[in-house]
Design brief:
The structure is a homotetramer.
Chain A (H helix, E strand, L loop, with lengths): L1 H20 L8 H12 L4 E4 L15 H13 L4 H7 L6 E6 L6 E7 L14 H4 L15 H17 L7 E7 L8 H6 L8 E7 L8 E7 L3 E10 L15 H13 L9 E10 L9 E10 L2 H22 L3 E10 L8 H8 L8 E7 L6 H10 L3 E7 L3 E3 L7 E2 L3 H16 L2
Parallel strand pairs in A: 3-4, 3-5, 5-12, 6-11
Antiparallel strand pairs in A: 1-2, 2-4, 6-12, 7-9, 7-10, 8-9, 13-14
Organism (chains A, B, C, D): Cytobacillus horneckiae
Protein name (chains A, B, C, D): Amidohydrolase
GO cellular component, one term (chains A, B, C, D): cytoplasm
Chain lengths: 430, 430, 430, 430
Amino acid sequence: MNEFIKKLTPYLIKMRRHFHQYPEAAWTEYVTTASIAEELKQLDFNLYMGKEILKAEARMGMPSNQEIADNEKRAIAEGVSAEWMEKMAGAFTGIVAAYDTGRPGSHIAIRFDIDALPIKESAEAGHFPADEGFISKREGFMHACGHDGHAAIGLGVARFIHEFKQRLYGRFTLLFQPGEEGGRGAKPMVEQGLLDSADYFIGGHIGIHSLKVGEIAATATKFLASTKINASFYGKSAHAGLSPNEGRNALLAAAAASLHLNGITRHADGHTRINVGKLEAGSGRNIVADFARMEIETRGESTELNENYMVPEARRIIEASAALYDVKAEIEMVGTAPSEECSKEWVERIQESVDESTAIHRVIPELTMGASEDATYMMQRVKQQGGSATYMIFGTPLSAGHHHPRFDYDEAVLPIAVETIGRAVLKLQQ
Amino acid sequence: MNEFIKKLTPYLIKMRRHFHQYPEAAWTEYVTTASIAEELKQLDFNLYMGKEILKAEARMGMPSNQEIADNEKRAIAEGVSAEWMEKMAGAFTGIVAAYDTGRPGSHIAIRFDIDALPIKESAEAGHFPADEGFISKREGFMHACGHDGHAAIGLGVARFIHEFKQRLYGRFTLLFQPGEEGGRGAKPMVEQGLLDSADYFIGGHIGIHSLKVGEIAATATKFLASTKINASFYGKSAHAGLSPNEGRNALLAAAAASLHLNGITRHADGHTRINVGKLEAGSGRNIVADFARMEIETRGESTELNENYMVPEARRIIEASAALYDVKAEIEMVGTAPSEECSKEWVERIQESVDESTAIHRVIPELTMGASEDATYMMQRVKQQGGSATYMIFGTPLSAGHHHPRFDYDEAVLPIAVETIGRAVLKLQQ
Amino acid sequence: MNEFIKKLTPYLIKMRRHFHQYPEAAWTEYVTTASIAEELKQLDFNLYMGKEILKAEARMGMPSNQEIADNEKRAIAEGVSAEWMEKMAGAFTGIVAAYDTGRPGSHIAIRFDIDALPIKESAEAGHFPADEGFISKREGFMHACGHDGHAAIGLGVARFIHEFKQRLYGRFTLLFQPGEEGGRGAKPMVEQGLLDSADYFIGGHIGIHSLKVGEIAATATKFLASTKINASFYGKSAHAGLSPNEGRNALLAAAAASLHLNGITRHADGHTRINVGKLEAGSGRNIVADFARMEIETRGESTELNENYMVPEARRIIEASAALYDVKAEIEMVGTAPSEECSKEWVERIQESVDESTAIHRVIPELTMGASEDATYMMQRVKQQGGSATYMIFGTPLSAGHHHPRFDYDEAVLPIAVETIGRAVLKLQQ
Amino acid sequence: MNEFIKKLTPYLIKMRRHFHQYPEAAWTEYVTTASIAEELKQLDFNLYMGKEILKAEARMGMPSNQEIADNEKRAIAEGVSAEWMEKMAGAFTGIVAAYDTGRPGSHIAIRFDIDALPIKESAEAGHFPADEGFISKREGFMHACGHDGHAAIGLGVARFIHEFKQRLYGRFTLLFQPGEEGGRGAKPMVEQGLLDSADYFIGGHIGIHSLKVGEIAATATKFLASTKINASFYGKSAHAGLSPNEGRNALLAAAAASLHLNGITRHADGHTRINVGKLEAGSGRNIVADFARMEIETRGESTELNENYMVPEARRIIEASAALYDVKAEIEMVGTAPSEECSKEWVERIQESVDESTAIHRVIPELTMGASEDATYMMQRVKQQGGSATYMIFGTPLSAGHHHPRFDYDEAVLPIAVETIGRAVLKLQQ
């Protein structure tokens, strides 16, 4: 194992930096998916893409048709072949790699999320990707959550399976999932049935907490349930000087909604979150704004808190804010993730499996997640049918928090993650 | 005159519809300016463009360099010749046409504004430009204030001067002004000295009030003084689930500013206006927004009310809203127009000059404007140096208010406007 | 006349200072009414009080039964006799004095409002009533609008009629109206029919504008129509630490309503006003507030603007603010005044009538009121039945604006007002 | 023990109902304190009151002098003797009862809080105190948190010590604390040194969670640290119709502060709370409000979260809200409680001590408090000097949540609480 990992490391770093330069937001991961596909094609996997892996109607939070078309043009311009483009046409991004050993054994599903964020990456000196010349080539988009690393780790795990295939039993499914941000990609994969026969599920994230490289958490806890909501307000434009009273002001309705949403009362039963992350309203300064669009998310320590408290509160406030300014509100649910718990058995399993590692020197049994992850949909499905699921955290110092323009991590975490998953897989063969 | 106007009318309609299809917002009127230039070239005018007519540093509310470059590319793609592009390079749009009769007489300046608005035109049946096939070809932009008509009227007035030149004395300056919306284009023309020797100033607007075709106002009153303000808020992004408290929320600061600006107390001394017409904030739903941008305008019945009450109130509220959410505010003044009054003598002058018209059947001495117009800068300059200024309103029914996606007017107002100005010019020769 | 006025002046000042010391808010003017009654008893008037002069069900904005009871106790403690108390029992304050000359002639109604405000008077040096020792004896209440002077002027006019009765014809009705503040007292007097046979109506106010003593306005214009609204919010209390989510927060609903009401868009057709003047919410800091009460007023340059724009906007905003916080709103209309115009004939009448005065040296034909006055109900009624009405302004410098804790005026305005009304009455005899 | 408790029960109920009828808010517990004093006088305790038990300058959140005077008058009217009134004069309420067995042993301090809340009690049928005729006799005040029970339990514990004195060693201090609501009374008792020699501290609360009678928690956890803040805004009054722009609106500043305070971002490190529980602003509807007063509290799961996050956020928001409306803010800290933890040893101690009880059938080791309690000041002091502290919860079903107008509990909890404390005391003798 050590030898394999050592040889693999430059590849992981190369791929991570490649992905980092081509960040693509949810449902537009054309270049990313194609790069992964090209890599996987060289190994012994059956590849599945498009509608085979995503239930079309379960996809949420889709870009506009215009955005999809623009991104497809961009992907072609950036060199994605017609073969791959055809499979992904219409925002069916992501890829699934399956390998059947032919020997009886369990079915292990492992998930890697691959999307980036609409954040403008820092170009300042001292920001590692800037200094090293692999900063984002797409202004306004950035791998600010480490999914570039996740994609690279996935390719590493694929190589591990390929390399160790003689020692393995049963079946393997590697899910390179689009649209984790916004809770959009896991559900359509689950609903397509990809996890239906899985006995074990492994997911994970690099960073999150300020752990050191070599420290990992066997399980994560406190996944916040989350719902992603788009709200639009439609009013009536008017000349702001001549006839302001003839307008119905959608911008003010959205501003009011932002403040009042932000004031949803804290709940005694557990942590909740509310964020209006994006707001666009109005077309010009001397026109009463006739539209506004907001991107909102709610979270709760439990699915109950999120879905039965935060979401109804948000709905009521959006409607009432529209009424305040006599405009019309439209509410669309565009993403969601439940809360879920890891199966307890993984604590001992991971501790034992990495026992002989020289790189992994500390296994924390359970670490608070404190964020949302739609991997919970996959965990839920696997557990529902009697399987067992975990979600690990792979420690690395961070130069700035997740979703920050200067977010970065120590690439030494990449081989650690591949090794941890590899050793867990081997352990499951026993 | 009647014969001339009759012959001119199809040309006015043709040009108006042409301009309507190529709406261009302030400082990007490349196609519009070039079309005007092409028309004027055929007549006996000296043409002036670029830095000859606009004091560079007096221009306000400029688009970004990117937007300027994009629009220049667009203009070239739409067929504007290199000759014109060179003169306008860097957002120096607009054109001035001068004619000197060679005979002693007064200097008459006449102004036509030519910019459009960032409004998406209605494509519904019943909207005349849609029905007649001359709807905007630039999605998201529209001549929703009638400046397409103003440009056509300007060309009509140029033809009038050309046609009647034997009967005219003194000098004529026709100013095709960019950037009236936002109060951006008049000041740099005035500061370039274009009005410095003018004895008379004529400006005007079609529509405004629900007059009938054939009804005009000899003078307009109650121009609201106005200031255009851009406010930006800079906070700190953070993961909205993991560490919301580490963010500093620029979106909420802007939302608060919007509501509190809107609540600036009414003033006992006269009418005031406040509008936050555009707001953009944040990059994604799960990120605490680290920036927000707002486009604001204040107005006052007097320059005093606007500049000494509304603007300082707005400044204080923007700063305090930033303090509420611990973010940084930047305030930029991007446009302005004073209040001004027409010279009283024009009431009688216009009444007498149209006395023999068969088309103009009613002259209202004075009509309330109720909006802002940076023509007031030109009026101010001409009056300051002892000249006399008016701003007329040319009646036409409107299908929807100014700045509305279904704004339209009766094209019969176009020849009426040319005739009114023509007759006023003739009257001034006596 | 000059002799009469000269002799009257010390009496006017004495009475004004007396009223100033016993300020009583709307519907609690027991001491004030009784003092007026005592004075009038000495003259040749028939006095009317209680339900004779106020239609019970037309009274609006009543104090609570507890407040009425407390004030009646107070009035008795301050020496009001049982005779007067009986007539006023249940908040039927105010008094009407009628005099019939027995000679044919017109019926002239003259109105004086007598109520004070819930404002704490300044006790600082330099505040004239404090310096002169006639500051309010009721903490929290103050004659901050000059109605102490109006009551004194009314007594002066009564003495004038008494003194000049041999020269007078027709009938006179002096209305000492309760509850002008809040637009509460005029309507029940009008609906009781007191103005039904009046040919002329005279009302007026001291101060308002910064005129000098000796300057008066023959008519006032731009009475703002006004509506007085009470809004209550009912939520649910909860322990703010243990179970904040179980509460429904009426305080926040009221706070939201305050801000959003304040943001009602300005109207192109004329001036409007909105004020939330009083807000009380919640019972303790660690309890989610389960109630809130607000006192609101709207105004409009026209009755149309007030009643068809401001009031419906206010209603919608109050309801939507309740919805924002899931509480219940109750809206109560507690006062109202229409806009009205003075009859034009008074300009010449007043100018001629004061022609020989040595004290009144300037008559302004028309002065903008800019405030609301329920005298407009009386003006409306008199004009409706063919009569003629005016509302004059009696100039005096003010030490601070109306409704300010340091409000005061020059008492020299008191004889001026009596003289003006007296001369107008004499003029009407001709 | 069983016999003693059985005999004691009617007394507990009688006393609880007595206290319930005379609810008194913080620093005005004159009648309550006197009633306790009268009861204790009959037993073998030394009683301490006034400045002996409260460090004057450590008292926070005092009523106004007027309120203190009014309450002292009321207490005298309700029959409190001059002897007691003298000791309590100036809001020095509360009483401490000390008993020294004369035998060597530890010093046990037990605390009972006795204040009520400014809540209007429900008089509806079905509300037990209403049905049974012991509803509050002071409108607007109510024992809505169970401190009437705590006072009765304290008297029961006093009787227990009196009864069992032959079996006891060491010293006992019973603290009947005023002003727990608002975190006002514990600190001045602690700073007066009353806990300085205590080896053990016992506090507790009835209700809180929906436990059954007979269920108790040996320790409580998650006391929220809390700070109580008064904010005042001072603006400038003006006539809302005539000159609204001359006012500076304190009501709107307070409304803005309420909303923006309510929106203080949730913190990733733990639970926080914010409540604006009371707001009073303005004097009348047609006057721009020149003052506003707010009662606020912040809480945090840790003292750190409260004092270093919530309080500075609240300060900034209050100041910025004042700046929004150009008014002046004054901030006063009027109460505070740290977070604290119970000593772990009490879990086993309580479990063993009630082992033989027939009434107490379940001991929960640790229960989340979720609220604030200034008993934490006493716990902190005792632990700092090497002692050991607990805070127990005595289960009872509640008819409505704490601080609700229909709050009530099963009186069967009263003997349970006395028995629990009694058995713990006996256990400490071993």
